[in-house]
Design brief:
homodimer, 222 residues, mainly alpha, 10 helices, disordered C terminus, DNA-binding
DNA sequence: CCCTCTCCATACGGTGCCGTATGGAGGGAC
DNA sequence: GTCCCTCCATACGGCACCGTATGGAGAGGG
């Protein structure tokens, strides 16, 4: 057993806070429960931090570094834009990042979380859009597809965390991610619908657009 | 002023709870604050409900009816599958449904919310998949795309609620939704990348896939 | 050996919420 | 009018958490 009592530093509290966010969301960042988990008391906490919000700020800074800076740095080492995007998709969907991401997005209405969130989303979508423009998409289309990709990412990790049985596993997941990635990267088939802006007559136009393609070459899982 | 005191029924509390979820999430379903908002006291609440969880259950039943049953019923009146899907997209992205949906998804770890959520997601994705199979997609591909569509929906409303400035407005939003809808409905272009699973050599292959299409027909925002 | 400075434990008061107990106010049945 | 039954107001105890106050324990310097 050997009940070690190594003095704690602010980093220990910050790390514990991030872990708690992954497990219970923002509500998990509570001083007394964290103290119990760290085998100490509030006395320790209020020595290192002014209050709960200070801990939250520190945890959010740590999150920014680990969940955005680091991953973009890693992915950016890939040789070309398409490889970067694929590496990004693989990295963010596969790991244990999801719980923290989901819980933080879910708390984006909190005054301390909101600015960090806005910044992170802006940086991430900008990075994706930059890769897409490098692939030849014009700026507007790249922005659209970047937002599209990010929304899909958000929904995906949300499902993974909240309703895991709705998400396929193993090779089916591979196939699913392939579908998603190609939707983001590939040009549409005939160039009929979608990319056009169309101010008001969207509904009638959309009908004809929807019935356009499928029914013939079922290339899918055959 | 005329401080009316109309007796309250369970439905009033249920409606107030759903409203509170839309504004503050599950934490908003708190007896005393709701009582204040309704201009009454806890005494009223505990007459109509056994406890807080009973109110939550009632609110979730109301949510199921309003946010899944009703909308699927409405959309199903459209003439063909593609029109149904488009109507579904328009209906769920445009309105004030988003806050409640986002906050409830964010609380899907709550023991009372989890089963309701699972049920709703299953029904919704099943409906989308059914339309896609009616459009000629085989079952596996339809399931993939249904999940894809739902994940995109989830991420979209999440962004709308949490970081609205990241989502385009007006005609740009129309264009964006067109991009999304065509990604879900259209067949991929040449059938090169993506739907293949590809175990290890993904990066080199992904390169050729990414640089395949764009750069030519820039139909975008010209 | 003692002094001091860093770090932590304990005790306390305050707040916001849940759930219970109990005493009515108000309106219909008769 | 009076009874009763439905509905609500008030008061209370309890819990979980925040933040403060204060008294040490331990290590290093002199």
């Amino acid at each position: 057993m050997a009940v070690r009592k190594p003095r704690l530093g602010p980093d220990d509290w910050t790390a514990a806070a991030l872990t708690a966010i992954g497990e219970q969301g923002l509500a998990g960042v509570a001083v007394e429960p964290l103290a119990t988990r760290l085998g100490t008391t509030k006395g320790s906490f209020y020595w290192h931090f002014a209050n709960r919000d200070a801990l939250l700020d520190a945890a959010l800074r740590s999150w920014d570094e680990t969940y955005t800076d680091a991953i973009l740095r890693t992915v950016d080492a890939e040789p070309d834009p398409a490889a970067r995007l694929r590496a990004l998709f693989v990295a963010v969907t596969a790991s244990e990042r999801a719980p923290v991401e989901v819980h933080l997005h879910a708390a984006a209405d909190h005054p301390a979380v909101a600015p960090a969130m806005r910044r992170a989303v802006a940086r991430r979508t900008a990075y994706i859009a930059a890769q897409l423009t490098a692939l030849g998409f014009d700026q507007a289309e790249a922005d659209r597809r970047a937002l599209f990709a990010y929304a899909t990412y958000l929904g995906h990790i949300q499902l993974v965390v909240r309703i895991p049985e709705a998400v396929p596993q193993g090779p089916a997941l591979e196939a699913y991610l392939g579908t998603v990635l190609s939707a983001v990267l590939d040009r549409p088939a005939g160039g009929q619908a979608g990319t056009r802006s169309s101010s008001g007559t969207a509904s009638s136009r959309g009908t004809s657009a929807g019935t356009a393609s499928p029914g013939t070459a079922s290339a899918g899982t055959a």
